Amino acid sequence: MAAMLVIEKGAGMAGYRIERQIASFGEHVRGWRMVLGLTAQQVAERADITRDTLRKIETGNPSVSFGNVAQVLRALGVLDQAVEAIDPLNSDIGRLRAGSLVKKRAR
Fold it and tell me: pLDDT tens digits, the chain, 107 residues: what are they?
């Protein structure tokens, strides 16, 4: 897969890891679309985006807006799963440090 993320000089391997993860994310989005038997046009219409934007998401282009990605996940029926996946209370460390989730008042 072609590189889509510009890695700044001195960014090291961290930039590559992000690029690889974004590409994998896009492949998973495409995989869900295929498993559900939906065309790119159907998903694009349901997400209220263009087919070109969906193609960018599926190929791991990092320039796509977060909102458009969320719309596609909703159209595929996996947005709730994605939100749950990053809930800190669904992890041991998150539950252990749950007190950190309460905002402290600024004085």
Answer: 344 444 444 455 566 778 999 999 999 999 999 999 999 999 999 999 999 999 999 999 999 999 999 999 999 999 999 999 999 999 999 888 888 777 655 55
- Cα 81 to Cα 37: distance, rounded to the nearest angstrom: 19
Cα dist. 38→13, 28, 65 in Å? Answer: 36, 14, 22
Helices (H), 2-104: 13-35, 40-47, 51-58, 66-76, 79-85, 92-96
| Residue whose token pair is 């807006």 | 65
| Contact present, 53 and 64 (Cβ < 8 Å) | yes
